[in-house]
Design a protein that fits this description.
There is one protein chain. By secondary structure, this protein is mainly alpha-helical. It contains two helices and two strands. The protein has a two-stranded antiparallel ribbon. The radius of gyration is 12 Å and the shape is globular. The chain starts with a strand and ends with a strand.
Length: 63
């Protein structure tokens, strides 16, 4: 069974930040192709995902 979670499922800001850092570590290779990717990811993608009713960010939890 695959468990899909939304970043919004994490109740507190610390848990959201920890998960955001883990996700970024998995996709940080994009830094080489996209200038300022890290800034965009944290300041735009994650911020809007957590603070918007219309956006979701999902991840697959591996066991």
């Amino acid at each position: 069974m695959i468990k899909i979670e939304s970043l919004k499922d994490y109740a507190n800001k610390k848990e959201q930040e920890d998960l955001g850092n883990k996700i970024y570590n998995l996709i940080s290779f994009a830094d080489t192709d996209y200038p300022n990717y890290k800034d965009w990811f944290f300041e735009k993608q994650l911020f809007e995902t957590v603070n918007s009713e219309n956006r979701n960010f999902f991840c697959k939890k591996f066991q």
